[in-house]
């Protein structure tokens, strides 16, 4: 996949979904895609519950940054106010209430959260000989009299020696911490409190992730994939190197999915079989979207987002075409399990998402930016829908419905099992559920409030950008047609 094109897709926020207000003529509604595929209707995953505190943490989904009672978000400012550039941890209850600011000395990045502790990288920077020395640390967490977390910042402990240079990528599980520093990858045993392996990979761009019973290592410098079973020490290479788009990776149980810079296919890597192969082809997606648009050919078709839920890969695909004199963008949701051979059009999810938004007519404006010194109209006649799916997790699809009058989004939640939709506010626990874990991908090992966790806040999403396949440029904003 062309990396520039893929990056362009990922920054697109304008949505023109099918099935609203009769704007998209000739749309098929039978849900059939590519031969024997069947129509939508998802299956539910197990939600994280504050009542299941005794459940093994590794069996709980989407809980990398929360305990059974509290959520932790790394952030550099509070309510938009500067805090002297200090990074701190915001602690809140799972419904967003009782928010507290917790300062951890020399905090560089929050890595992971367990029921009994917070893991982070400490990196002092005080213009002394200690500057630039990173240390992996843990802060204990206890339950207070009210049953919620008490973070004992006075009892921080070092889990590794002081590493000269930056720790670039970290992965924590119940026994091991695997991290990269420089050209080395280190495996630390938390139980024995010893380093069990330290291997020079001859690369300055190493990223590690946990994937079921395996650890995965991506060498971004040489475009190579490695893996090892949980208790092994040595890394094994998987086939030939792939130019993986580092943030477009979705992890499951012993399998993961990724896109590349070379093509627009979606690949499946099965660590149990130590093989990587095409899972959903570019041709499959384009054929499916073309049929749903009721056309013979599209101007553009590409993947915007992927999520893995209840052993199904969900794909949000963007299609662009011109019909008459109107520019259209539509987002379609598809899915497939590793056991199936065809993709399934998620008709119910797509139609619910589009029906919650409103169709807007207007035009797209470009500039001023480094391409254009002044504003100009890129597309005169466009139709926009105000909705997109921003996460599928724990049996639910989360929508952001943009309100142009209020200039912010509103969250909605669709139950994959029952097909019911409801609006969410900041008083609902589900509003914060997509924040429990960082974005999928190799490079984001931490909990960066600016771009990773808080970026999923549906109120912060912007729908003003769009790609134009003929122009090869971005829109700066969408300007609604005056009534």
Main pleated-sheet profile = 7 strands, mixed
Poorly predicted regions are 1-60, 78-82
Mean pLDDT: 78
Shape type: globular
Count of individual beta strands = 36
State the helical fraction.
under 10%
Distinct helical segment count: 3
The chain-level structural class is mainly beta
Share of β-strand residues: 35-45%
Q: Strands, helices and their partners?
A:
Blueprint: H1 3-10, E1 70-75, E2 77-78, E3 81-82, E4 88-93, E5 100-102, E6 107-114, E7 117-122, E8 133-143, E9 149-151, E10 157-158, E11 163-164, E12 167-172, E13 176-181, E14 184-189, E15 194-200, E16 206-211, E17 214-219, E18 224-229, E19 236-237, E20 244-251, E21 255-260, E22 266-270, E23 275-280, H2 282-293, E24 300-309, E25 312-323, E26 326-336, E27 344-345, H3 347-356, E28 359-366, E29 376-385, E30 387-393, E31 396-403, E32 408-415, E33 421-423, E34 467-468, E35 473-474, E36 477-480
């Amino acid at each position: 996949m062309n990396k520039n094109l893929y990056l362009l897709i990922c920054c697109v926020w304008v949505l023109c979904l099918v099935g609203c207000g009769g704007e998209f003529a000739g749309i098929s509604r039978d849900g059939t895609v590519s031969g024997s595929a069947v129509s939508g209707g998802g299956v539910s995953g197990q939600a994280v519950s504050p009542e299941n505190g005794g459940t093994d943490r590794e069996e709980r989904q989407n809980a990398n940054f929360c305990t059974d009672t509290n959520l932790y978000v790394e952030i550099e400012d509070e309510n938009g106010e500067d805090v002297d550039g200090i990074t701190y941890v915001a602690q809140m209850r799972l419904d967003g209430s009782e928010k507290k600011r917790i300062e951890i000395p020399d905090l560089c990045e929050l890595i992971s959260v367990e029921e009994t502790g917070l893991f982070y990288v400490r990196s002092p920077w005080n213009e002394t000989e200690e500057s630039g020395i990173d240390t992996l640390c843990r802060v204990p967490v206890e339950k207070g009299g009210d049953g919620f977390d008490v973070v004992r910042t006075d009892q921080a402990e070092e889990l590794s020696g002081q590493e000269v240079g930056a720790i670039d990528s970290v992965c924590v599980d119940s026994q091991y911490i695997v991290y990269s520093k420089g050209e080395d990858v280190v495996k630390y045993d938390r139980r024995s409190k010893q380093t069990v392996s330290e291997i020079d990979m001859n690369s300055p761009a190493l990223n590690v992730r946990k994937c079921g019973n395996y650890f995965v290592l991506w060498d971004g410098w040489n475009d190579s994939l490695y893996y090892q079973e949980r208790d092994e020490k040595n890394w094994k290479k998987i086939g030939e190197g792939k130019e993986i788009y580092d943030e477009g990776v979705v992890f499951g149980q012993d399998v993961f999915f990724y896109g590349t810079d070379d093509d627009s296919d979606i690949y499946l890597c099965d660590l149990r079989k130590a093989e990587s192969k095409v899972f959903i082809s570019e041709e499959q997606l384009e054929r499916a979207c073309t049929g749903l648009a009721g056309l013979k050919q599209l101007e553009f078709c590409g993947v915007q987002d992927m999520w893995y839920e209840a052993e199904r890969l969900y794909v949000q695909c963007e299609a662009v075409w011109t019909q008459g004199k109107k520019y259209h963008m539509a987002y379609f949701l598809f899915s497939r399990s590793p056991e199936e051979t065809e993709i399934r059009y998620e008709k119910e999810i797509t139609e619910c998402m589009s029906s919650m938004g409103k169709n807007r007519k207007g035009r797209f404006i470009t500039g001023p930016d480094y391409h254009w010194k002044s504003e100009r109209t890129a597309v005169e006649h466009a139709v926009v829908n105000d909705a997109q799916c921003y996460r599928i997790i724990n049996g639910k699809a989360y929508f952001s419905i943009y309100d142009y009058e209020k200039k912010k989004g509103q969250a909605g939640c669709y139950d994959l099992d029952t097909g019911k939709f409801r609006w969410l506010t900041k008083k609902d626990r589900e509003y914060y559920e997509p924040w429990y874990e960082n974005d999928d991908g190799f490079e984001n090992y931490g909990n960066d409030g600016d771009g990773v966790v808080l970026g999923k806040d549906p109120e912060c999403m912007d729908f003003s950008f769009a790609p134009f396949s003929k122009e090869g440029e971005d829109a700066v904003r969408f300007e609604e047609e005056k009534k």
